[in-house]
Amino acid sequence: MSNPILQVENLTKSYGAVEAIRGVSFEVQEGEVFGLLGPNGAGKTSTIEILEGLRRLDSGRVSVCGLDPQRDPEKLKREIGATLQATSLPDNMRVFEALKLFASFYERRRDPEELLKRFGLEEKRNAFYSKLSGGQKQRLALAMALVNDPRVLFFDEPTAGLDPQVRREIYDIIEELRREKKTIVITTHYIEEAERLCDRVAIVDHGKVIAQGTPRELKQRSGDTTRIEVRLAKPVSVETLKGLDGVTDCQAVDGAFLLHCPRPPQAIVALVKHLEAEGNELTSLEISTPSLEDVFIELTGRRLRD
Amino acid sequence: MKHFVTLTRNRIALTMRNRVFLFFTLLMPMGMFFLFASVFGKGEPLMVAYLLGPVIALTVMGSFWGLSASLVMYREQGILRRFRLAPLTAADMLASSLAANFILTIPTVVLEVLLARWVYHVTQFGNPLSIIILVSVATISFAALGLIVASVTNSMQETQIICQIVWFALLFFSGATFPLATLPKFVQGLAVFLPATYLVAGLQKAMLLAQNPWMLKTEIFVLAAWSILAFFISTQLFRWEPGEKVTRNAKLWALATVLPFLILGAWEIKYGNVQTQSRSIYRMATAAGEPAPANAPEPAARPVPSRQAPR
Fold first, then answer.
1. Are the beta carbons of A54 and B13 separated by less than 8 Å?
2. CA dihedral defined by A147, A148, A149, A153, rounded to 10 degrees?
3. Nearest to A186, CA basis, from A197, A172, A175
4. What's the pLDDT tens digit per position in A233-244?
5. Do A21 and A158 touch, CB atoms closer than 8 A?
6. B14 — contact with chain A (CB < 8 Å)?
7. Shortest CA distance to B246 belongs to which of B142, B141, B162?
8. Facing A52 at nearest CB: one of B2, B85, B240
9. What is the CA B102 to chain-centroid distance, rounded?
């Protein structure tokens, strides 16, 4: 863990009066999949686009493959590959044509034929971009990100707007890249994506990194205890629930209560007894193992998916 | 340079697939050609040769429509962003679209000349070298004008409006649709400030008076200088991102595009003879039509026939 391939130090960026990034720092090691997890508008895309050399930073220091994206954008572009948000290709460009065209811009390049095969686009080889489904477009975007055999890959919300089945397809592709020890930076607002794909995650909110570590570390930090989420018919104080047997902590989130329970059966019994005594009723109950969502809730008091 | 070639090739391939573009670059100019030659020119070889100037000018000027529309579309749909990730420069993108447009426009011009020869039996094309140079320089400069329009507008709608205004001015105030000599005096005064005027006049002098490139040095020089200036300005104003808005400074830059023609126009008014020359060429073409079965070919400008009267 000595030689990071990517470094961000005290990065800031404002758009007019809006402070999008307020002092973000992190490092990414070679061969690691690093995730920026946070709600929309947290500053993830701004951060990743500064790393790609597409946006200018206000202050702080950024280095990718030993290059300054602002001073050496041309050199940097040869070393990185990326999928962007809000991007497209000309409607009447063909799939293979796009891969070949973009490969031609680089000296070091992968065989477009091989990429076509690997990303399952062989049948769509001569299809127009406008005729592709959302998943096919995203697979083409991933293939295009690899045409120059980049040292660092950036995937900005790689599965946003895709349906669950297609999303899993994209996960498989990224997991394969992970096994090949590619260095990848992913932004996402999906918990599942961060937990499943990333070696390390930085949780970002309002332009700041509020926690950083492996998914396991982050979850342990929040107690690593089972969560029971309950909704009740009548209001109850957080303190009362905290006092129940088998409950170590309790938070109110969006009208529900999140109980931290090292011993779930005991806690449920205690809860039901309490409710009966108070004449209160249970409208819903959900048991879950702690996830990064819980970490986010603990740190911000809000849910990630808004 | 290598990127420029592959980008140009790709651009040509994409454009050839686009039916709307083919309509504007091939079918519309052809329609205009036959309309001008058979209706306004009554099929008279000399008159057709005279009208070939405006027809070629319209074909060449049409470039700026297509280029501005496609550049704005590429930017607004985030296509340019994807290209920006690759090691490409603004000049690569712009120069390749100019080159592709050039390669796609020239065949139409050649076709117009050949049709004039085969269908209307025009045998005198004056000085072909002058025509080739004028057409080449003008194709690039009007296309670059389109790139500038795309760079100072924020949406497709704005682009279309500006293009309409520019197109209208080029069309009606320059002798491209109605012979300059038949237009009211104040329009003739305006015309000296429009690049299209010099293109039409240059083409007609090359065709009917067989003037060589040296005799047409003013027209050629101004159009060439303009194309370089317009290309330079378009690279300065180029925007990759749909979110980036045009700055006030950029709009001022764009105004610099009209400078060469302001200067030339002022010089023309003081010393020049574009107007008298175009009048004499017009008389020459129409006089030859006199003995034809029909009456003197009336160019579209019926409402102002008195302007033809000598002085």
1. no
2. -90
3. A197
4. 888 888 888 888
5. no
6. yes
7. B162
8. B85
9. 12
A277 touches chain B (CB under 8 A): no
Retrieve residue A222's tokens: 């929040």
State whether A88 and B3 contact (CB < 8 Å). no
Count CB neighbours of B134 within 10 A.
30
Cβ distance A86 to A110 under 8 Å? Answer: no
pTM of the model: 0.85
d(CA A105, CA B7) in angstroms, rounded, equals 9
Q: Which residue of A has its CA nearest to B83?
A: A102
Contacts of A278 (CB under 8 A, 6+ apart): A234, A236
Q: How many CB atoms lie within 10 A of CB A234?
A: 9
Report strand pairing: A249-253 vs A226-232: unpaired
Considering only CA atoms, which of B252, B264, B189 is closest in space to residue B226? B264
Residue B171 CA to residue A36 CA, distance in Å, equals: 55
Its sign, for the CA torsion A171, A173, A174, A179, is positive
List, in sequence order, every residue forming a beta bridge with A4; answer none if it has no partner. A29
Q: Which two tokens stand for residue B37?
A: 């030659």
A106 touches chain B (CB under 8 A): yes
Apex A186 CA angle, A182 and A189, nearest 5: 155
Q: What is the pLDDT of residue B299?
A: 42
CB within 8 Å of B163: residues ≥ 6 apart: B64, B65, B68, B69, B146, B149
Say whether the ipTM exceeds 0.90: no
In angstroms, how far is CA A32 from the centroid of its own chain?
Answer: 14
Place of tokens 């020119």: B41
Residue B277 token pair: 């020359």
The distance from CA A115 to its chain's CA centroid, rounded to whole angstroms, is 24
In angstroms, the first-to-last Cα distance of chain B is 54
On whether the CB atoms of residues A304 and A293 are closer than 8 A, the answer is yes
Q: Evaluate whether B85 touches B163 at the Cβ level (below 8 Å).
A: no
**Chain B nearest CA to A223, separation (Å):** 42
d(CA B57, CA B60): 5
Nearest to B109 by CA among B29, B224, B227, B197: B29
* Whole-angstrom distance, CA of residue A199 vs CA of residue A185: 10
Q: Distance (Å, rounded) from C-alpha A170 to C-alpha A162? A: 9
Q: Where are the alpha helices (DSSP H) in chain B?
A: 2-16, 19-22, 28-34, 45-61, 63-76, 79-85, 90-118, 128-152, 156-172, 185-191, 195-208, 217-237, 248-255, 259-271, 274-289
Mind listing the pLDDT tens digit for each residue in B246-284? 777 777 888 888 788 888 888 887 777 777 777 788 888
